[in-house]
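Run: sequence + zinc ion -> complex structure.
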Amino acid sequence: MAASARPSVVPQKDLESFQEHLDKSTRILALIGAGLSASSGLPTFRGAGGLWRTHDATQLATPEAFGRDPGLVWQFYSYRRHMALKAKPNPAHYALAELARKKEDFITLSQNVDGLSPRAKHPPDQLKLLHGSLFDVKCSDFFCNYVESNNYTDPIVPALAIPTDESDPTTTSALAARELDISDINVDLPELTFSHLPRCPKCKRGLLRPGVVWFGEQLPAKVMRDIEEWMVGGDKIDLIMVIGTSARVYPAAGYVDAARAKGARVAIVNMDKNDVPASGLYKGDWFFEGDAAQIMPEILKGVIGELGDMPDAAEE
Ligand SMILES: *[C@@H]1O[C@H](CO)[C@@H](O)[C@H](O)[C@H]1NC(C)=O
Ligand SMILES: [Zn+2]
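>> structure
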């Protein structure tokens, strides 16, 4: 072994049996969640920092909140877009993107809205964004169907720049505010009106809104249809990988059960060794405990090889 090779983070026996199975698998599913982004240093939805500590995120992520105060909701999403752009896709995102290029009947279902898989150039047809994306914008007008994907412009309109203490832009608090890591800063969010917010270029009437699924909204119909078609589109499923998400809650639990019913073996990658499916682990399943950013490139290596360049679509 070369001196530069990283030490293995998974037991050799599991690694071998997984790689052997992966090698001969054709129909493969991955389900990814917040744990994958945590490896990129991105705080979870409810862990929003800065000014947003005093707001309840779940109260801002609704169509009603947007109807009431679109300026406030956009400020919250502008902050989340900014934070997501500061994070970078990690080796697990790149490894899954590469696996998608190597195995054409592999799809990834993502619960993340942070844009990290698209930025890692995950083939778009093989990536199903269950909750939409912070970097999709769509028209909020009921009668308009305008949608734009992968818009990484930050801020999306000038009025949505992250507020700082402009009275003294050199103070530590202003700098920290810009980094959004502290809560006790002395700046107020400016009141925004309709005219400050991004408008739909198609109907010229509606406000644009973040293309994420809000509380009380349906999961995107096309995505759900694609997944359904894929699930029934073959006699069996060889493998489901559950990465950085709890296999106990909807929708992960449902997909694990459905895949198992079609013969899939289950591989879980999670920091928490107690996070096993509600139905337990079966003989032939794998549990890889630890950081997905380390584990994924290692367990997929037999198919994807060593990770090479890691381009970031947001920087192009
Ligand atoms: C993103 O959306 C904003 C608002 O509609 C628009 O002004 C900007 O040009 C878009 N960025 C890209 C790269 O298309
Ligand atoms: Zn419109």
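>> summary
The first strand starts at residue 28 and ends at 32. The chain has a mean pLDDT of 87.
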